[in-house]
Every structure is written in structure tokens, then in C-alpha cells.
Amino acid sequence: MGQFSIAVIAGDGAGCEVMPEALRVVDCVAKLDYRRFDWGSEYYLRHGRMMPEDALETLEEFDAILLGAIGHPQIADHVTLNGLLLPIRRGFDQYANVRPAFLYPGVASPLANPGAIDLVVVRENTEGEYAQVGGFLHSGQPEEVAIQSGVFTRRGIERVVRYAFDLARRRDKKRRVTSITKSNAQGFSMVLWDRVFAEVAAEFPDISTESLLVDAAAMNFVRRPASFDVVVGSNLFADILSDLSAILTGSIGLAASANLNPARKHPSMFEPVHGSAPDIAGRGIVNPLAMILSASMMLDHLGLANEARAIEHAVAAVLAEGRCRTADLGGASSTREVAAAVIEKLGR
Ligand code: IPM
Ligand code: MN
Fold first, then answer.
1. Does residue 102 belong to any structural domain of this protein?
2. How many other CB atoms sit within 10 Å of the CB of residue 305?
3. Cβ(176)–Cβ(228) under 8 Å?
4. β-strand 5-11 against 33-37: which pairing, if any?
5. 239, 243, 260: residue to mutate for ligand 1 pocket, most atoms within 8 A of CB
6. What CATH code is carried by the domain that includes residue 317?
7. Using CB atoms within 10 A as the burial measure, which of 28, 69, 128, 214 is most buried?
8. Per residue in 271-286, pLDDT tens?
9. Domain co-membership, 147 together with 232
10. How many helices (H) and strands (E) does the chain have?
11. Does residue 69 line the site of ligand 1, with CB under 6 A?
């Protein structure tokens, strides 16, 4: 019996290639029990849904969920994603989506002078612009209307902002939280966000704060990325900024993420920021490091901090050496070779 039971959903495309490699790496440092679920787009093509109706009840019993990627060239993205990824994030109230961006020594940033980038985007993950509240009127007619509402609640904002401040304290680096809004244009939801942010900030006098409009934040991510510590934003804004922070630190193939239920009432889910990458999937060349680092975030969440650090150090060592890397980082190594290099660094 392993120490924890993990639900493994490799999903689609690149997810199926990086998942086995991440498990091989985790097996070097911890003994976990895995149960694999074949949910995703192939399952959809057979059953007409991305996962069974009682999927959340099934997943509820696990200590954590590892997810590869979801997305299929023949199925609309809003079908695949609203059929699996988003219902798990919302259903398990995984309200803090944590996305670190660290510029590893030996990895090139597209910026000329990136400095030492070490930031974490904390994204609200259960409401906001992704709430899926709205509808179509006069579908298919010339006068067709679509309404998509953003939903911002005081409770929803407060808890994710609080998570961001706690994280800035725990990281103990720059001890700074940046809040992202667009309250100059969106005078209700984002004004509420600004107000709640200021209220929570008052409880953390040891943490400095900054509020940026999302457009200015995009500019400043490029201009002074090393100045950021913890950055907190809504579902959509932080989605966009976390792709930006990923590429500023070399590749989205390195970007890991955790969908956390900090209260631990439900399992949390760990997944790379990248998608199923149908353009390069199936050729054995996808970078497995984002998946491997996501698995190490899972170990951390499970209380296996030393094991998590061991994986991070092994990844950092492989990147610093620069001999073995996938094409996204300018190398020619395969998915499997990169994972094997990490395993070698772990001394296995
Ligand atoms: C991500 C992805 C998803 C999101 C998509 C695939 C729905 O871009 O995890 O960042 O926007 O949340
Ligand atoms: Mn995204």
C-alpha cells in the first residue's frame, strides 16, 4: 500500500505522453497508489461525455488528482473543457490556481534582460469570467445574442486574495502581493475586487502591495518581471498573465500548476499549464518537465516537502547542465530522455 492514493487522468494528446514520465519520476521518491482513468476525448467519442456522470463522487475518495491535458482537434474546446477540466476545478472548489514562474539557470528567456524571475500567479479558479452564466437568444438567427456574465462574490475574492497573502508570507521572498484588475472600465466586479483586496491587505501589514490594471500588468511583466512576487487575479486575467509568465521563463513546457482546495475538503488537482498540443503530440518530443513539476507540487501539497524539493532540484540540475532538453528549449531530446535525465539526477 502506498502512502497516498492518486487519481491519474492522462487525458488527451501530450497529456498521455508526459503522464507516464512524471509517474516514473515520482516513483523514485515516494510510494503512491495510482488509479488510472481513461477519461477525456477518446472516452467522449465512445460515450458522448468526457467523464462519467458520477466522476466527482469517484474522484472524491482520492488524496489528489494528477491531470495531463484535455483537448482534441475534432471536438470543440468548450465541449472538452466544460466536460472535464472546469467541472473538476469548480466542483471540488479548487479556488486557488497556483502557477509559479521561475527562470531556471541555464534556460533562456525571450527577454534581453529578464533578471531573476521568481513569481507566482494565483488565479481565482471557480467564478469570475469562467462562471458559465449566460445563454444564447435567437440562436442561429441574424439577431442572435450571446450573454456571458462574470460572477464576482465577496467570499470568492476574499479567499483567493487571502491565499495570495498567506503565500507571500510563506515564500518569504519579496513579501509582495500584486493585485490585477480592470476597475477603470469594469466598474462593478473589479471595484469590488479592489475593495476586498484593500481590506485583506490591511490584515497583512508585513506584506507590501501593488494594484495594477491588467493591461499595465502585461506591460510590466515584460518590462520588470523580476519585481513581482505573488500576483493575484481573476480567472481570465490570471489565465492570460500565466501564459505570459510561462514564456518569459523560457517555455510553457516548464509551467506547472496546482488547482488547490486549501481547506482540503476535496482533493486538489495538479496539471501542467500547457494543453494537449495536437500539433506536436504523438512524436515523443513534448517537454515532460511541466508535468513532472506539477507532480512535485502535488507531493508538496501532500506533505512530502523533501520529496518535492528533490524533484525540483533534479529538474534544475538537468536544465542547468543544458545537455538534455526538448525542442521547445532548443534541444533535440525526447520526452523520455528528459525524464530519464531527471531520474538519473535523483540518483536512481
Ligand atoms: C489553462 C487553460 C484553460 C483555462 C482552458 C483550456 C480552459 O488555458 O488551464 O490555463 O483557461 O483555464
Ligand atoms: Mn491558460
1. no
2. 12
3. yes
4. parallel
5. 239
6. 3.40.718.10
7. 69
8. 999 999 999 999 999 9
9. yes
10. 12, 12
11. no
> Is the separation of the CB atoms in 1 and 316 below 8 Å?
no
Do 117 and 226 belong to one domain? Answer: yes
Residue nearest to atom 6 of ligand 1 (CA): 81
pLDDT over threshold 80, residue 325: yes
Any bridge partners for residue 34, and if so which? 6
- Contact by Cβ (8 Å): 24, 55: no
Structure letter (DSSP) for residue 17: H
**Domain check: are 202 and 134 in the same one?**
yes
200 and 172 housed in the same domain: yes
CA distance 2 to 294: 19
Residue 292 is placed in which grid cell? Answer: 513532472
CA dihedral 291, 297, 302, 306 (to 10 degrees): 110
* Interval 69-100: pLDDT, tens: 999 999 999 999 999 999 999 999 999 999 99
Check whether 2 has a pLDDT greater than 90.
no
Q: Which atom of ligand 1 is nearest to the CA of 81?
A: 7
Q: Which residue has the cell 463522487?
A: 57
* CB 273 less than 6 A from any atom of ligand 1: yes
Q: 236 lies in a domain?
A: yes
